[in-house]
Amino acid sequence: MQLTGWARTFYSVSDWLMRLAYVNILWIVFTMVGLVIFGFFPATTAMFAIIRKWVMGEQEFPVFKTFWKYYKSEFKKVNLLGLVLVVIGSILYIDLQIFPSGDNLLFLVVRVGLIILSIFFLVMLMYFFPVYVHFDFPFSQYLKYPIMMSIIAPLQTVLLLVSTYLIYLIMVSIPGLILFFGVSTFSFVWSWIILNFIKKVEQKNQNNQKNLSNTGG
Question: Closest Cα to residue 96, out of 112, 77, 85, 81?
């Protein structure tokens, strides 16, 4: 029997909620398997890889098996990249503590600059995992490309920031949501926004290449 109307909508929403809850629990479990420190980045990568498949329209695949595959295969590489990100984030945090706000103009200028850099760094982190699971880049490009995207896609960046804030408000206002949907919801929204932007850029490039080929012919 084919579902229509509200029944179809309810089924679709329930299905997505179950998916997000399942992958969120997998993320928690595998983060703990890696003793948090070594598990966070591989588990997050695996979660984004799963959600990328869903966003790109791939539905029929074994979620647990696929999660485990990405967790194992990317464990070393993404932890090395994660170490670089942690070092950068730690330096920014320490600098913010060293340069408190005050009447001194130099301290104020430095602190404002550090706040801007910190916001820019957080935005870059939003781009990092969707980019990592979508492209096969050399090591350094995984840090360079998210920075470039956050600059050349200001509308997407604003949308990311606004959606992140709205999701945060919902999560803190309803007890229990964070446990089942906290990380996976952010992952889904970020992936949807960023991957759709990437698809548009890739499609535009393909059309331009076709037009050039047709013109040359």
Answer: 112
Distance CA 193, CA 51 (A): 12
Instruction: Give me the DSSP letters along 35-71.
Output: TTTTTHHHHHHHHHHHHHHHHTT---S-HHHHHHHHH
CA distance 165 to 106: 31
For the chain, the straight-line distance linking the first and the last C-alpha, in angstroms and rounded, comes to 52
* Full pLDDT tens readout for the chain, 217 residues: 566 677 778 888 899 999 999 999 999 999 999 999 999 999 999 999 999 999 999 989 999 999 999 999 999 999 999 999 999 999 999 988 887 766 778 888 888 899 999 999 999 999 999 999 999 998 889 989 998 998 888 999 999 999 999 999 999 998 889 889 999 999 999 999 999 999 998 888 888 887 777 776 5
Query: Do residues 23 and 56 touch, judged by C-beta distance below 8 A?
Result: no
The span from the CA of 175 to the CA of 105, in Å, is 43
